[in-house]
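Q: Can I see a sequence and its folded structure?
A: Here is a first one.
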Amino acid sequence: MLTALAATPGRVYSRYELINQVRGYEFPGYERTIDSHVKNLRRKLGPDGARIVETVLGVGYRLGWSRDR
């Protein structure tokens, strides 16, 4: 998932788009599953995890980290 977000930093991906990027096909499961994966990814990234993987309310997620921060 981090690779998918990092491919285009700043671009907002919907949950549906992230599932398809990560799985590579139509995922028959519940799309809110991505929220759990984002939570785990943020935890692994440490204290700045929420700043690195940002939530865009009503849309999805984006990679918010840049080198100049």
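Q: Show me another, different protein.
A: A second, unrelated one:
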Amino acid sequence: ASLEKQFGFDKPAHERFGQMIWNYLRFDFGESYFRDTSVLKLIAERMPVSISLGLWMTLISYAISIPLGIRKAVSDGSRFDVWTSSVIVIGYAIPGFLVAVFLIVLFAGGSFLQIFPLRGLVSEDFWSLPWYEKILDYFWHLVLPLTAMALSAFATTTFLTKNSFLEEIRKQYVITARAKGLTEHQVLYGHVFRNAMLIVIAGFPGAFIGAFFAGSLLIETIFTLDGLGLLGFESIVNRDYPVVFATVYIFSLLGLLISLLSDLTYTWVDPRIDFETREV
């Protein structure tokens, strides 16, 4: 009876559900069953790690995949297109955790070189370093985790960009633009780019959320990075339900916000899109 009262099970189900919704709207997730601290504090402590991995990995992936996809579309069928496709497919087929173990053995003091740190997001003396050394230390710790995650992240965006550009390049307005004497650069980035990039932008929320949670779980475990992915997994194993529900809530909320940002980016990339004038 004491436990039922402590965890609220002495109240009707609808009352408990309404209280939970009200608490979640105020970001009050209660206390962890096992860690003797508030769930919000746990999430706040782990958030920088997950944001670092998810954000940087997504930005690096898009920064490489989009120019590479455009180049592959322009040189479709060439030797460059064939060998880059082979490399991308092989990288996509190799699991990220296997690459992570290989990088640790090779570069983090496993059996050969000891160039990069093995664990953590920053060094123990991070707060005593000058600001420029803090930046270097932060990115130095991210090199191996981001490399392990990014190798398999190029494939989807690269091929999506290539196919989208190929589809647009074959359309009539491109032929007309070329007939008017525009250079290839003007045709690609002045006309084709906006139309071709819409479908690539649509995939950004999924790519970020995937890197933010599912894609970083094993990487966080291997490199001993205390992020939200590892926190959620440990909470499921320990049946720490307040932490489990809170992490699911946070991920869902972030997904909604990023989807909204994606829709707003549509109108920035292509001003012809106007959601207000759409007929229901």
